[in-house]
Structures are given as structure tokens and as C-alpha cells.
Design a protein that fits this description.
mainly alpha; 291 residues
Length: 291
Amino acid sequence: MTEQNSIRVKKKHPADAVMYVAIYFCAAISVALLLGIIIYVLVKGVRSVSWEFLTSVTSVLKGTTGIAGNIVNTLYIIIITMLIATPVGVGAAVYLNEYAKPGKLVSIIEFTTETLSGIPSIIFGLFGMMFFGQTLHLSYSILTGSFTLVLMVLPLITRNTQEALKTVPDSYRSGAIGLGAGKWHMIRTILLPSAMPGIITGVILAVGRIVGESAALLFTAGSSGMLPKGFSDILNKATQSGGTLTIQLYLSATKGEFATAFGIALVLLLIVLGINFLTKALAKKFDVNKR
């Protein structure tokens, strides 16, 4: 058998070489764009970021410029939103994937979820302002913003959880039930732990979307960046106006305060990068299939 006829010898086609070059070129562009954005924001914003910038609030009387209040508001909105959206989204995914019988109802729910994920965020903001803000009389507040963001991140959490549950082999289900485990016991002890990396990925991606959201919060949460002064103020903070980091970035840019805007952009960029690294670390930690 000659070398040319051997099936072990791979023929090199010109089209393969062109595709390899195109793939690596596209990958290089993606990396270059990310590095370019990071370096540009870092150079523009690093001079504005200081300990005082992170721990104080903007005050004309004191002559300080800070984002501590906006950081607190962002944390408030993240916590309230995720406390509501996570159990609802995971529960909806478990119902659709494990309990609901395939049919028109499931198709309608899945179609609705996909449609919700594609609606522009500013429409959510308009709805949140009219329904939560005016109809429910919550006005401009962190609660109004959080309830609005719940509607926005629910599809993300639900779809990620569904896809994670679908990756669990059916043999896990049949094996658990065959051993006498109940439906809910099987879901709680077998399916959810196995699907945990995908669920965590969806939850943290939802947090990333909350951190980067601005259009919806402009209509709902307000723009106040004040820090709570006492315990009672902390408890009442959810019913008060609160501008997040993205809102303050927008306001600073519109006022021409670009140094402050780039400082906030650098903080946001670091938060987003941290969220992505945290996603990878947690997904790897909870991946029971690789243990």
C-alpha cells in the first residue's frame, strides 16, 4: 500500500488552510478588541480611582467626588433582584423540564420566555415605571428597579437552568427512581447537583446583566447616590431612590465629567471581569461530573 493511498495520511486542502487562517484571525480580533477596551478604560480611568473615590459620595460642600452610595445601591438591587428571580427561575425550569408534559402549554411558556429575553430593556423600564412605580405607588425606588430587573433576568435564569437540566443523562433519573427515590427527592439530590454548574452560570450572568443595566433603571430606580446614615435608613433604603454605578456613569458623561465617568467605567469593568472569573471558578467547583 503506497503512502498516497493510505487512509492515515490526511490530504491538505487549500480551503482548510484558508479556514484556519480566518478562524485564528477572527479570534485575534476578539482578543484585540477586549484588550483594547480594557487598556483604553484603564488609561483614562485609573487616575480617578482612589480610596476616597470608592468610599465617599459626591458633595459640593465637602469638595469630594465618590461612588460609595452608587456601589451600595447596586448591591441592594442585585440582592433584592436575585432573591426573587433565582428561586422563581429555577423552579420554573424544573417544572418545565421535569413535571410539565410536552405540549402546547409548554411551547407557549418557552416561546414567551424567549420573547421576554429579546425585549429591549428600555421597554421594561417603561413598564416598570408605569406598573410598579405608579400603579403600585412605589415611585422611583430601588424596589421598583429590582422588580423590573426580575422580569428581565428571569428568562436568562430559566433558560440556562433548563439547558443545564437537559444535559443530565436520563439514566440518572431512571436509576434513582428504580432505587425507590421519589420524584422530588431525585430532583433535589441528583438532578440539581448535577446541573449546578449551568445553574450557577445562569445566575452569575444574570448578576452581570443587573450590574451593567442602565436604560431600565433610568425609568425606575432614580439617581440618588447618598449613603444610608443609620440602621433604620438601611432598612428604608429599598423604598428610596437609588442610582447604580451605570446610572452615575451616564449622568457624569452627560455633564462632561469624563474623568469621573471613566473612573466608574473602570470599576464596572473590574466587576464584570470578576464576575466572569467567578463564573468559571464556581462552575468548575460544582461540576460533579469531573470529580
